[in-house]
Design goal:
flat; 2 domains; mainly alpha; single chain
Length: 290
């Protein structure tokens, strides 16, 4: 085997074969994970954006929502904020509270009770409207989607922010230690750290979403079987989406590294061929006869 064959990287077809073989092996060894992923894909395909509301459901749903007194809730919330500010302003040092402070505290507690009462009435009417349309309706699915995108965006923001700081500190440590590190090595380290940060951020987002999902499902007051089916399906769908997103990121990163490696291999082969050509063109020294 010559030196060119030792440095040669596997072809794209070989890489595809390795990927397919690896996915097949993983699916056989991790049946629960694979089943959850496929179930999530099916849930996304068949549930989609939820069932459309009928005209009667829309009228009843909107009629119930219109009975929620948002003005009273706004006034109660504003009054509670004022009493809370007055209470904190009248507090003394080291938790001291005189008669004025005690009076402001009592007003704040009464305002809080009134606000909780107004909100509780609104929540009862909101749950009544939700139970009318159901969790599998367009309204229910959209609320779940909004919750997922909120946590997913927070996870991405965490990963981007953390990656920025990691890139800066990695560069500073490299300069401080005086290492003779190439730009490609630095970029590769940053790329690996970015993948780690996105994995952590999106995993945290997935766990937080699943923990809050049951509360959303329960607010629509479905029967136990429907609640469990939707909860499991939506959790698997979120897992499938996050997994696909991360796999695409890993694939793009691997493709980038593979492309850079192929370019470096081509340049190295060209340099070796040029060196061999120069060696063949050099004339052999003539023998000297005495």
């Amino acid at each position: 085997m010559n030196r060119h064959q030792e440095l040669a990287l596997p072809s794209i077809s070989d890489m595809g074969t390795l990927v397919v073989r690896g996915v097949t092996t993983f699916a056989k060894k991790n049946k629960i994970t694979t089943t959850s992923y496929l179930l999530g894909i099916l849930f996304l395909v068949f549930v989609g954006s939820g069932t459309q509301l009928t005209l009667s459901q829309k009228r009843q749903y909107n009629a119930i929502l219109n009975t929620i007194d948002l003005e009273s809730e706004f006034q109660a919330s504003s009054y509670y904020a004022q009493t809370q500010a007055a209470y904190h302003a009248s507090k003394g040092w080291f938790f001291a509270c005189d008669s004025t402070c005690q009076r402001n505290k009592k007003r704040m507690e009464q305002a809080k009770q009134k606000l909780d009462h107004v909100r509780a009435q609104g929540y009862v009417k909101l749950r009544q409207a939700k139970s009318l349309v159901g969790i599998f309706s367009q309204v229910g699915v959209e609320e779940v989607k909004e919750s997922f995108w909120e946590y997913f965006g927070a996870g991405k923001a965490f990963a981007k922010r953390q990656s920025m700081w990691d890139a800066m500190f990695m560069g500073m440590r490299t300069i401080a230690r005086g290492r003779d590190e190439s730009m490609m090595e630095y970029i590769l380290k940053v790329l690996i750290q970015v993948l780690i940060n996105f994995s952590i951020g999106l995993f945290m987002a997935l766990v937080t979403f699943v923990l809050g999902l049951w509360g959303i499902v329960k607010s629509y007051q479905p029967n136990p079987l429907t609640a469990v089916i939707f909860f499991v399906g939506a959790s698997c769908a979120a897992f499938a989406f996050v997994s696909t997103y991360l796999l695409l990121m890993y694939g793009a990163a691997a493709g980038t590294v593979y492309g850079v490696a192929k370019v470096a291999e081509s340049q190295l082969r060209l340099q070796q061929e040029q060196q061999q050509g120069r060696g063949n063109n050099n004339p052999r020294p003539r023998p000297h006869y005495l």
